[in-house]
């Protein structure tokens, strides 16, 4: 089925991966992840179709669908007593100032949830224009926070961090995967956490796969954890059920 038809058939849906406090396991947020409920092929990940969507210039349309559906999910959860402190969306630097996307992010304030845009680490070295800074300021004025995604995968500088001033760094899964007692990866992640703390930036470890990693990351000061050890990406109902597990409810 073509992507145009999938949009018309309402087949793109948000899944939500929980983010928990490293200190006590409380639910503190969620990352929105795009999925296509394909009628013949089942649940498709972005890698299966996003390149085609970009070629067809449909990514902005899909972004808006994800934000609209996420807003609706947040509103339904709130009506049932569940408020998610923060929700994050993967947005490219070229689309983060899209008026439609910014307007939808503003709309989410009614759910008492902080909206965050995740930008790839590469923006710290690629985006230095006045136009980008203007777009960044516009996003912040709308009350949207900025996080740097996949941090540690590129060549970002500390100067770049101070200029962008993100609210959080999401430490790349490739750095988290090898974390073990006494490992070089643990020392490297610890150094990132220390720099972030110095700059007043929160750290989120992506791809946490087991309890040992969770404890090690907590002990070196990582603020928030995300990964299969806690939960895979969940649909709206699954996420609501997860949030109401013992000691999970955030509000």
Automatic annotation (TrEMBL):
> Which CDD domains does the entry link to?
EAL (cd01948)
Q: Which PROSITE patterns match?
A: EAL (PS50883)
Q: Which InterPro entries match?
A: Cyclic-di-GMP_PDE-like, EAL_dom, EAL_sf
Residue ranges of every copy of the EAL domain listed in the record: 1-247
Q: Per its record, what are the GO molecular function terms?
A: cyclic-guanylate-specific phosphodiesterase activity
Among PANTHER family, the record links this protein to: CYCLIC DI-GMP PHOSPHODIESTERASE PDEF (PTHR33121), SIGNALING PROTEIN YKOW (PTHR33121:SF70)
| Name of the molecule in the record | EAL domain, c-di-GMP-specific phosphodiesterase class I (Or its enzymatically inactive variant)
Which species is this record about?
Answer: Aliiruegeria lutimaris
| Gene3D superfamilies, alphabetized | EAL domain (3.20.20.450)
């Amino acid at each position: 089925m073509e992507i145009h038809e999938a949009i018309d058939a309402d087949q793109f849906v948000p899944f939500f991966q929980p983010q928990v406090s490293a200190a006590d396991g409380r639910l503190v947020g969620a990352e929105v992840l795009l999925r296509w409920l394909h009628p013949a092929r089942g649940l498709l990940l972005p890698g299966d179709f996003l390149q085609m969507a970009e070629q067809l210039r449909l990514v902005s349309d899909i972004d808006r669908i994800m934000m609209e559906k996420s807003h609706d999910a947040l509103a339904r959860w709130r009506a049932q007593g569940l408020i998610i402190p923060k929700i994050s969306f993967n947005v490219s630097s070229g689309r983060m100032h899209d008026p439609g996307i910014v307007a939808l992010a503003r709309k989410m304030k009614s759910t008492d949830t902080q909206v965050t845009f995740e930008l790839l680490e590469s923006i710290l070295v690629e985006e230095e224009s006045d136009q980008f800074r203007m777009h960044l300021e516009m996003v912040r004025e709308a009350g949207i926070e900025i996080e740097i995604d996949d941090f540690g995968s590129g060549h970002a500088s500390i100067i770049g961090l101070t200029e962008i001033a993100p609210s959080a760094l999401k430490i790349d899964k490739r750095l988290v995967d090898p974390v073990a007692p006494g490992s070089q990866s643990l020392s490297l992640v610890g150094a990132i956490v220390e720099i972030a703390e110095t700059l007043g930036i929160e750290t989120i470890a992506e791809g946490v796969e087991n309890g040992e990693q969770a404890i090690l990351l907590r002990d070196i000061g990582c603020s928030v954890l995300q990964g299969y050890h806690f939960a895979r990406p969940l649909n709206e109902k699954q996420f609501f059920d997860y949030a109401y597990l013992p000691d999970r409810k955030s509000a």
